[in-house]
Amino acid sequence: MKARIAGTGSYAPTRVLTNADLERMVATSDEWIRERTGIRERRIAATGEACSDLAVQAGRRALTAAGVAATDLDMILVATCTGDFPLPATACLVQHQLGATKAGACDLSAACCGFVYALSVADAYIKTGMRHVLVIGSEVMSAITDWTDRNTCVLFGDGAGAAVLSASDGERGILSTDLRSDGTLCELIMVPGGGSRTPPSEKVITERLHNIKMKGNETFKVAVRTLEEIARTTLSSNHFRVEDLDLYVPHQANVRILRAVMERLGLPIEKVLLNLDRYGNTSAASIPIALDEAVREGRIKDGSLVMLGAFGAGLTWASAMIRW
Ligand SMILES: CC(C)(COP(=O)(O)OP(=O)(O)OC[C@H]1O[C@@H](n2cnc3c(N)ncnc32)[C@H](O)[C@@H]1OP(=O)(O)O)[C@@H](O)C(=O)NCCC(=O)NCCS
């Protein structure tokens, strides 16, 4: 039994925040942001628009593409680090909005690797008897961004992407997933306040401890190394070579990270999906948004061999090999 991706969907809020807009907010320039990150613009959720709102839109589109009714879902997994509430899980809000009356629902926290981690969970559920699982990556990163910190505020954006996984007997589906983590590097990307270690307080707000903090330069180096390593592991465990891939869909954080990975792997740019110029880093949403674009643009077709690669806070890194 394989977990086949039966349909994808995505949603991006309508408000566009350009590099020129950011020039008016912090000491930065369009040129610096484009050269150092590859990002031109990102989407920002409207006031009152939360993680589940984005997730529901993406989820509906994925269900339509798959031809699966919400009432047929066995499980909903939402990968996010910016859920509507600390409690309950955002997936339960999505379950209600979609009318998925027979589905279980929970969130998965693995930062930018969340979607690939959630795919691996859905894959295991399907191998052990579930028929249809909706996996969503949804983020409102703008809610945890420090809009006075030029080191981070230029990087992130909001959005959601989703995939319906359905049980299938054929050769198509998820061939393998690889998951890794290294908690010794937990301080490289962190929201230090607002959790049980430092609960919400005036100090948390004043010192902006509820916002994302990042050591960008150190993260950059680990990202290049781990993305290369895990891609090689996934290729070799499936007995594939880089040339066999039809498309590599990486987490969209920084075009320089991805160029370095492509060079090390010998992957030509035509085989890599890049859309971070329009969305920035949307954390767990970045890979499913990219996947949905690739499907809709015809870059992924039935039978395509697609590899996913992600890294993020934790640190975590992950990959998946899919026969579409
Ligand atoms: C954040 C990142 C773009 C910074 O690029 P970098 O080339 O590493 O730049 P550095 O951090 O070394 O900073 C270089 C200089 O640019 C400055 N700078 C940082 N952000 C800036 C901005 N938005 N505009 C202008 N200058 C900026 C720094 O202050 C520093 O100035 P200094 O030399 O006077 O101290 C890059 O490190 C990165 O993308 N890292 C990975 C982050 C990531 O992907 N995180 C998410 C993981 S899921």
Low-confidence blocks of residues: none
CATH superfamily of the largest domain: Thiolase/Chalcone synthase
- Output mean pLDDT: 98
Domain tally: 2
How many H/I helical runs? 11
The CATH architecture category of the largest domain equals: 3-Layer(aba) Sandwich
Structural class: alpha/beta
* General shape: globular
Any overview of this molecule?
- The chain is an alpha/beta fold.
- It is built from 11 helices and 13 strands.
- The chain has 2 domains: 169 residues, Peroxisomal Thiolase, Chain A, domain 1, CATH 3.40.47; 149 residues, 3-Layer(aba) Sandwich (Peroxisomal Thiolase, Chain A, domain 1), CATH 3.40.47.
- Strand 12 and strand 13 form a beta hairpin.
- Helix 3 packs across helix 4 and helix 8 packs parallel to helix 9.
- It is globular.
